[in-house]
Write a structure and sequence with these properties.
The chain is an alpha+beta fold and 240 residues long. Helices cover 24% and strands 30% of the residues. The protein has helices at 23-39, 65-76, 103-110, 114-122, 216-227; strands spanning 4-7, 12-16, 44-49, 53-58, 85-93, 126-131, 138-141, 156-159, 163-167, 170-173, 178-180, 183-187, 208-213, 234-239. Strands 12-9-10-7-6-13-5-14 form an 8-stranded mixed β-sheet. The radius of gyration is 19 Å and the shape is globular.
Length: 240
């Protein structure tokens, strides 16, 4: 394993594991993040996992960059031998009509029926690689090869919150209204980002996500329950 240590200013360091996006690199990024948190490494202020690297923010009054790098090298030599417990979320999604404006086009491009697209998407356990773009936006992979498509040629200037989208090998859920160039194949009524919570983002890197198809009536029922703070997203602990 070739690892690079890159300076990101006076108070941050990037540990880069490679040049591609895949689960092996993601697992290495997340493993280092777990070890740092478990040991409460002195001077470390925050950790930001990405597809292929870990950004480490640190306090230079507590630890020098060179010292931190040596500590990290030692942590990289250890291996996780025990199975890891992670959170798996069950996210309700309506793939019908107005909630899925690009579903028909995606199906035609992929040479599938809309039902087949929905089944492929809903049957996949997705891995949260990272959070980015806008607060709480989860980059999740990997899509079945039949659903791997380039981004839209004409991005939208406004994508509604809760929109479930696909592009390249990834799927995502837009947590807030924003521009976007991914294909919208469904919508969820749950909140992915809520500043009332200590951890505003619902998902975190390393989580697993499955999408559960619901009809428009169930979507509305859940949306009303979410608005009344009477709905809890199903989450269970699984071992990987």
């Amino acid at each position: 394993m070739t690892v690079q240590f890159l300076s990101a200013g006076d108070t941050a360091m990037v540990v880069q594991f490679g040049e591609v996006i895949d689960r092996v690199l993601s697992d290495q990024v997340l493993a280092l993040s777990r070890r740092i948190r478990a040991l409460n490494v002195p001077g470390v202020v925050d950790l930001v996992p990405t597809f292929r690297s870990l950004l480490i923010n640190y306090d230079p009054t507590q630890v020098r960059g060179a010292q931190l790098q040596e500590t990290l090298k030692g942590l990289l030599e250890s291996e996780d031998t025990e199975p890891q417990a992670v959170r798996q979320w069950s996210v309700p999604v309506c793939y019908d009509g107005e909630y899925a404006p690009d579903l028909q086009e995606v199906a035609q491009t992929a040479g599938l029926t809309t039902d087949q697209v929905v089944q492929l998407h809903a049957d996949t356990q997705f891995h949260v690689y990272m959070i980015g773009f806008v607060p709480g936006y989860p980059y999740m992979g990997d899509l079945p090869k039949q659903l791997v498509l380039p981004r839209r040629s004409n991005p939208r200037t406004r994508v509604p919150p809760g929109s479930v989208a696909i592009a390249s090998t990834m799927t995502a859920v837009y947590p807030i209204e924003s521009p976007g160039g991914w294909h919208l194949i469904g919508a969820t009524p749950i909140r992915l980002f809520d500043t009332r919570h200590e951890a505003p983002a619902l998902f975190k890197p390393g989580d697993k996500v499955r999408f559960k198809p619901v009809d428009s009536n169930e979507y509305q029922r859940i949306r009303d329950a979410v608005a009344a703070d009477e709905y809890e997203v199903k989450c269970e602990e699984v071992t990987v």
